Structure formats: structure tokens, C-alpha cells
Amino acid sequence: MVTVGTVCKRRCWHPIYGLFLGCGALFIIKEIIQLHKTVEEKIIENVARQTFPLSEANGGTVDEEAAKSPGEIQQTRIETLRKVCQVNSLNKDLVISELWKGFFFVDQELKVVYCGVPKVGCTFLKRLFYVLSGKSRSKNPYDISANAAHGLPLETFQTHNDSEIAYFIEHYKKVLFVREPIKRLISGYNDKIRAINPGYWSGLGRRIIKTVRRNYSEISERCGHDVSFQEFLDHRIYEEIGQSKPDMHWDTVYRTCHPCMIKYDFIGKMESFNDDVNLFLHQINARKDIVLHEDYTSKLDNILIEVQNFYDRVNKSAECGLTFEEIVKRYWEVLFHKNLITPPTTLPNIQKTTTKEELTEIMIDLYHRQKATKTLTNKSFDVLKSVSKATIAKLQDFYKYDFEMFGYNKTEI
Ligand SMILES: *[C@@H]1O[C@H](CO)[C@@H](O)[C@H](O)[C@H]1NC(C)=O
Ligand SMILES: *[C@@H]1O[C@H](CO)[C@@H](O)[C@H](O)[C@H]1NC(C)=O
Ligand SMILES: *[C@@H]1O[C@H](CO)[C@@H](O)[C@H](O)[C@H]1NC(C)=O
Ligand SMILES: *[C@@H]1O[C@H](CO)[C@@H](O)[C@H](O)[C@H]1NC(C)=O
Ligand SMILES: *[C@@H]1O[C@H](CO)[C@@H](O)[C@H](O)[C@H]1NC(C)=O
User: Fold this and answer.
1) Residue nearest to atom 9 of ligand 3 (CA)
2) Ligand 4 geometric centre to CA of 375 (Å)
3) Within its chain, how far is the Cα of 143 from the centroid?
4) Collapsed DSSP state (helix, strand, coil) of residue 176
5) The whole model's pTM is what?
6) Closest CA to 387 of 231, 188, 239
């Protein structure tokens, strides 16, 4: 049985993670985010602005909920949660440890507390709360780049004392967003490990290899670039059953957000993200001028960040022994996974000699041609085929409460 509040006493957080990922606001940057206009945006300024659905959303509704009204769905989700808490006697005293407080965002104007679960749309939701707070010039969360999301000056529980926190929990509307736990792990793996991400490889990647791989090569030990999904999960299991405490980014929602101790008023799901965000905005009577579609330039901005990443990271990746073809393959996979680019029928040819300007043109061209799709959920399940059934069964057991509390059926493998 997990004792909330003591979970993070030991090693479970490498400070550098906060810079790359993490819904926890460990680094409070006071600067106002510059809403810059890139050169590329200016080039295409005259192109008609198009709208696309939220890129982190999978679209659609959760199957078993299809016939219900949005209000009924919320009611059912909350009842399910409370029932599971009660049946398993999980209603205990709330203690949120210091580090964990960074996952709780509070907006005193809106009177909202948001528990930001990593890998569950938090990059978007943090930008949304920032826009809602009126501190941004923009009405569209996507005008703030995804990379800037984690540096936004949002208030968290870390800057409040216990009596204030108790007040917020008692009086404010409390919201969290959840996701099928295994898909959350897939997303984490794709973003941090599968992606061209030498910064993450050298931290987490190397640690995973040293922990779970029996016979690793010198280059894998040095780079941590070639962790398989099976190994990523083996490491997750190791954390859970071993002495090492889980990395906060993959930890259960149960331990991150204390859903039995805090009476959440709203439970959103990644699987019905668009609908849930809209309903939530309606319920908190949010300003009506918020633009929830990802418009042409801001989505492109995120794609162009990936173009820059490619050039920043390609040489370091090559030093890890990856061939250029492997780097490009992984690069595309992750662009598709992030839903930034819809897989085209034939992939453009990226070569060593392709310049950044040429790659930018390729991306703008792909961007023009693509249509909004809902392939994300479906595609991401493919990686499960590479993993042993025993592993999935174990993880389903570790995330048992997350499955039950939030009404997820365990995936048939
Ligand atoms: C908590 O903070 C509030 C606001 O800053 C302050 O008024 C109050 O005295 C503090 N309470 C305790 C117990 O420190
Ligand atoms: C370890 O891997 C190396 C190279 O991949 C191989 O030559 C060696 O036989 C392996 N050793 C064991 C004990 O499997
Ligand atoms: C990567 O390395 C090549 C030569 O190996 C060099 O020409 C190129 O400028 C480097 N790129 C970056 C972005 O450092
Ligand atoms: C993916 O989606 C298609 C069409 O919706 C469906 O036929 C197929 O079974 C799905 N595949 C998986 C692995 O869920
Ligand atoms: C989940 O499992 C329950 C019980 O086995 C079943 O009735 C329900 O249809 C399942 N839902 C989905 C979406 O598969």
C-alpha cells in the first residue's frame, strides 16, 4: 500500500527533467513569454488561416460513453472514482509532499485547481490556463509554443502554505485529465526515448540500459540511445518493485493527484479531449473569446521547432552510431506520433545534404497537404506488439487503481 507523501523521499527526480518535460512546475520563470513571429510565419502570412483540431487530442468520444450527455458522462466518471476509492479504502488523510506540489496548479481568479498529469495533454492545458488567466496577449493557447509551456509563470501549490492549499481544495473547482495508463507509457517512450533526444538518452536512456540490459555495448552505455519499449517498461517495473522510487513522469495518477483524498469536480480524458476541454470551459464560465483551434501559424511553429531540433541533434545522434537513415526514420515516427504531421503516402526524401531551409519547405508543404486525422490512438498501439504479455500484465497490475478509478478496461493483448 502506498503512503502518500512519502513516495518521493528517495531518488525519483532528476532536476534536469523539469527542463524538458514535466507538468510539475519546478522552475518558475518569471519572464513573460515572448510570442514571437518567426521568419517562416512571415513568409506564409498571406496564406489563408486554416483550423485543425487540438493536436494532442485523439478526437472522438470514449466508446462506452457515446450515448450519454456530457453532464452524465462527468457524473458517471466521478461516481466510478468515488466508488473505487471507497471499495478499496483509499480515502486517507491528504499529504502532498513538497515536490509533488509542483503538479498542482491554482488559478485564484478562476478558482480552479488543476492537477497536471504528465503525458495527458498537460503541455496544452498549461498553455490554456495561462491564456485563460488573461496574462497572455493571445486568445489561443497554441500561440504559445509547446516548448515554452513548461516555463509559463503559473502558480502552483509550491508557493502556498498548508492552510491556503486546504482552502483551495475545499473551495475551488478541481480538475484533472487522465489517459489509459499503457498509452500514457507509450507516449512517454515515444517522446523521450524513441525521439531524437540525446539529452534524454544520456540521462534516462543510459540509466535504463544499465539497470535492465544484461550485456550492453560501450556505445549504448555512453549514449543510452537505443532503449527498446520492452526495456523502458522493464525499467518501469524495476522502479515499482525495487528500491528505486518511480519517476514522477510515469507515476500513477493515483499517487500524483491523490484522487481519493481530493474530491475532483471534473475528470477529463485524453480519449475525449476536445469535448472535455470544451465542457470544462463552459462549466467554469470561461471567457468566450478563447480560440481552441490550432491555427495555421501556431501549429507550424511547433513543426518548425522540430525542424530546429533535428539540426541541433542530428550530429550528436550520429555520434551514438545511429545511421542517418535511422535518425530520419525515428524523426518521422515522432512527428506522426505527436500528430504534427499526418503520414503522407510517400515520405519526402531527407538527406544529409538537406539544408534547414529545404527541410522547412518540406514541412510547410506537408502541412499544406495534410488533413486532420484521428489515427494517433490506433497507431500508437502498434508498439505493444513488441512487448511481452507478462510485462503488460504486470503494468496493468501496477496501474490497477488508475484503470479502475477512471473506467479503463485493461487492453486485450
Ligand atoms: C498562509 O499564508 C497566508 C497568506 O500569505 C497568511 O495570511 C497565513 O497567515 C499563512 N498561514 C500560515 C499558517 O502560515
Ligand atoms: C555481449 O555482446 C557482445 C557484442 O554485442 C557479444 O560479442 C558477446 O558475446 C556478448 N556476451 C554475452 C555474454 O552475451
Ligand atoms: C554536423 O556535422 C557535419 C560534418 O560532420 C557538419 O558539416 C555540420 O555543420 C554539423 N552540423 C551541425 C548542426 O553542427
Ligand atoms: C485501427 O483502426 C481501424 C479502423 O478504425 C480498425 O479497423 C483497426 O482494427 C484498428 N487497429 C487497432 C490495432 O486497434
Ligand atoms: C469494458 O469491460 C466491460 C466488462 O467486461 C464491458 O461490459 C464493456 O463493454 C467494456 N468496454 C469497452 C469500451 O470495451
Assistant:
1) 315
2) 9
3) 18
4) strand
5) 0.80
6) 231
Q: Indicate which ligand has the atom closest to the C-alpha of 412.
A: 5
Q: Which residue range(s) make up the domain with 344?
A: 294-373
Question: Which ligand is closest to the CA of 215, given by its number?
Answer: 2
Distances (CA, A) of 275 to 57, 70, 112, 129: 10, 8, 19, 17
Query: 63 CB less than 6 Å from ligand 5?
Result: yes
Pocket of ligand 4 (CB under 6 A): 378, 381
- Residue 336, in any domain of the structure: yes
- Measured from the Cα of 315, ligand 3's closest atom is 1
Which tens digits make up the pLDDT trace of 351-409? Answer: 999 999 999 999 988 888 765 444 444 455 577 888 999 999 999 999 999 999 999 98
What the block records as the C-alpha cell of 167 is: 482552502
Q: How far is the CA of 23 from the centre of ligand 1 (A)?
A: 26
CA of 21 to the centre of ligand 5 (A): 33
Beta strands 112-115 and 173-178, pairing class: parallel
Quote the ligand 5 centre to 377 CA distance (angstroms): 18
Closest CA to 127 of 111, 143, 110: 143
Q: Is residue 345 part of a domain?
A: yes
User: Is residue 163 in contact with ligand 1, taking CB distance under 6 Å?
Assistant: yes
Q: How many CB atoms lie within 10 A of CB 199?
A: 16
- Of 402, 383, 401, 403, the C-alpha closest to 391 is 383
Q: Is residue 4 part of a domain?
A: no
- ∠ CA 252-100-74, nearest 5°, is 55
Q: Strands of 173-178's sheet, edge to edge?
A: 104-107, 112-115, 173-178, 266-269
Q: Which residue has the cell 545511421?
A: 323
Of all helices (H) and strands (E), which one includes residue 218?
helix 218-223
- 197: closest CA among 299, 117, 317? 317
**Residue nearest (by alpha carbon) to ligand 4 atom 6:** 378
Residue 140 forms part of a structural domain: no
Per residue in 298-326, pLDDT (tens digit) is 777 788 889 999 999 999 999 999 999 99
Domain count, the chain: 1
Q: Lowest mean pLDDT: which of 83-87, 122-126, 154-158, 245-249?
A: 245-249
